[in-house]
Amino acid sequence: MKLKRCYKKCLFSLVLLFFLSLCVPQTASAASKPGTVKSLKCGITTGNSINISWKSVKGVSGYQVFRSASYDGPFEKVKDIAAGTHAFCNLKLQGGREYYYRVRAYSGRGSRTVTGSFSKVLSARTKCASRTAAVRSNSNVRKHAGINHPIAATLSAGTKVTIICTTNDKSGTSWSRITYLAGGKKKSGYIRSDLLTAGQSKPKTQTGIVIAGTGLRLRRSASISSGIIITLPRGAKVTIWGQSTGTDKQKWYHVSVKRGRKTYKGYAAARYIRIS
Question: Is the pTM above the cut of 0.70?
């Protein structure tokens, strides 16, 4: 009887030790899991590069940077960063595109790597010139690129918008990040690119002043034989939209001028206009 009791005690002890051996490594692993990366933000950007940085996490071996062309992923690892650094410059990117980043810390345990939780998704875009466009038909503007995201606004056909950059949804469909006016306030969101007209870069204009002593003739084309639209007095202000070479081999400006309630557009010899 005593032998049986001793046997049962030994068996119980062995079973207990077995379960404890399973629990101890898990507890140690959980205790060494790195903290979540926070304060992920975008720094300087160019036409083909994006700089990101984050707040360093103590006691880690390094960081893993993931990137996606869509807010909803999939995200792919693009770089391992050493523990002493908490920034990354992503080169060779496409201009005028929005990219999405998330970062996590990791700790090495011999042949094993323990990773922490991902940071929040960061949206960042490369630089490009903004373009004006119009909505083709009544369309929804979304909080992010994709019909699965909440509707931020509904714009009516013909609404003027400014395209900031382009991006994709998870299926690869092209979307545009835009700004628009709603209730007198400037707002932003995402709309499918095929719902917009082809945008053009905003034209750059200059202001000029007529310096011709006897007045300046505004003509229909850049030629002294072209029809006269109106004669402008000395000191008149004009808006210069562009320039070209006339039939006299001289520089001419394409200008517009407002006289009363009417706006006239035509060509004038550049030598009689001073840029103000």
Answer: no
